[in-house]
Amino acid sequence: GAVVSQHPSRVICKSGTSVKIECRSLDFQATTMFWYRQFPKQSLMLMATSNEGSKATYEQGVEKDKFLINHASLTLSTLTVTSAHPEDSSFYICSARREGFYNEQFFGPGTRLTVL
Amino acid sequence: AQSVSQHNHHVILSEAASLELGCNYSYGGTVNLFWYVQYPGQHLQLLLKYFSGDPLVKGIKGFEAEFIKSKFSFNLRKPSVQWSDTAEYFCAVNARYGGATNKLIFGTGTLLAVQP
Q: Which of A43, A97, A108 sits opposite B102 (nearest CB)?
C-alpha cells in the first residue's frame, strides 16, 4: 500500500506554454500533498504544501502565480507550470502524507520537465 | 533556518565493505529523522525513520541509523554492502513545532556506488 503516482513521467514543451502535472495517491487518502523540485546533483527543494480543499502554502521564493497548485480531492493534486521557460526545466516530485502515518510522506516517481 | 548536511557526496565501496553515511542537522527542537533511498530510475523510498525512543533504529535491507542528539547527527550504517545498494541516499529532517508539522528538509544526497 501507500503508492503515489505521477503523470506524465516526462514532458517536453515549448517556451510560453503551460504544463500540468498530476499527483495521485492510489490506495489511500491524502489531505496533504507536497511538491518538490530537484535540480541535477542537488537535493529536493520543497516548493509548496498542497492542502485538500484550501489554498496551497508556498515556500519562500516560489511564485504562486507561476506554479499553480490545485488539490481538489483527497487523492489528487495538480501542479501547473504556467508560461514555462527553459529555467523551469527540472525534475518535479510530489509526495503525499498518509493519515495515521505520522509525518511520513510517500513519494511519487517524479516528472521530468524540459522546456525548449 | 533549519538545514541538513550530508558530508559525503559520492562514496565508492567494494562489496562486503562497511558503510557509514553522515547526516547532521541544525535545529534545536524536537525532530523526526528519515533516511530515504533512490535506486536508479526509481522513486524515493523510506529506509528508516526515527520519531522517539531507542535512538538506534533499524530499517529495511539491513540498514540502521543512530540518532545522537548531542551531535545533531543521524548517521546511516550498514555492516556489509551489496552491489544492489548502489543508489542515492537522502537524509531528511522534519522539525516539529508544538504539534505536527509536515515540512521535510532534505540533505543534498550521497551517491553510493558499490563495485562487485
A: A97
Express each pLDDT in B24-76 by its tens digit. Answer: 998 877 788 999 999 988 888 999 999 889 999 999 999 999 999 999 999 99
- Report CB contact under 8 Å: B106, A43: yes
* Burial class of B58 by CB neighbour count within 10 A (0 to 12, 13 to 18, 19+): exposed
CB B13 within 8 A of CB B21: no
Contact across the interface for A103 and B105, Cβ inside 8 Å: no
Separation CA A29–CA A76 (nearest Å): 9
- Return all residues near A9 (Cβ < 8 A) that are at least 6 apart: A109, A110, A111, A112
Rounded distance between C-alpha atoms, residue B91 and residue B70, angstroms: 18
Q: Do A46 and B42 touch (CB under 8 A)?
A: no
Decide if pLDDT at A62 tops 80: yes
More confident residue, B74 or A99: B74
